Amino acid sequence: MKVFGFAGWSGSGKTTLIEQVIPEITRRGLKVSVIKHAHHGFDIDKPGKDSWRHREAGASEILLISDERWVLMHELRGEPEPDLDAQLARLSPCDLVLVEGFKAVQIPKLEVHRPAVGKPLQYQDNPAIVAIATDVPLDAPLPRLDINDPAAVAAFILQHQGLI
């Protein structure tokens, strides 16, 4: 599996850009998966539901399955957070994994930058960044992609990863 990341400050548009890039890639017949790292607790379960009750009772893992999807919830219960390699190993085979977050992991990344967020560019401090997607002209030594052109962003990623 090829792995490509998205870096940028909160509010820069990483999730929106990934959401727009995915269909551009799947239209080419490629299978895409996503790993999103959250810096805060989250819960996909609902209090009172059977799976929530099982977790609250102390189950380490709960696998929910239906005729449309399945999800495995794993409670860390004090264990360390798994690294990106451990999470990649859990995924089913695919052509490309897009990663949002995991800022310190050295995988090729696209920096998503909007000056309106009021934060500096990150590429100078992160050698894994190979291009910048933005909505303004930039004077930077990396390729500049139009954040509003998801087809061009997808093409760059696929070319960079040797998938086209």
TrEMBL record:
SUPFAM superfamilies, alphabetized: P-loop containing nucleoside triphosphate hydrolases
InterPro entries associated with the record: MGD_biosynthesis_adapter (IPR052539), MobB_dom (IPR004435), P-loop_NTPase (IPR027417)
Residues annotated as domain Molybdopterin-guanine dinucleotide biosynthesis protein B (MobB): 3-135
CDD domains: MobB
Superkingdom classification of source: Bacteria
Pfam family, one: MobB
NCBIfam families in the cross-refs: mobB
Protein name per UniProt: Molybdopterin-guanine dinucleotide biosynthesis protein MobB
Native organism: Zoogloea oryzae
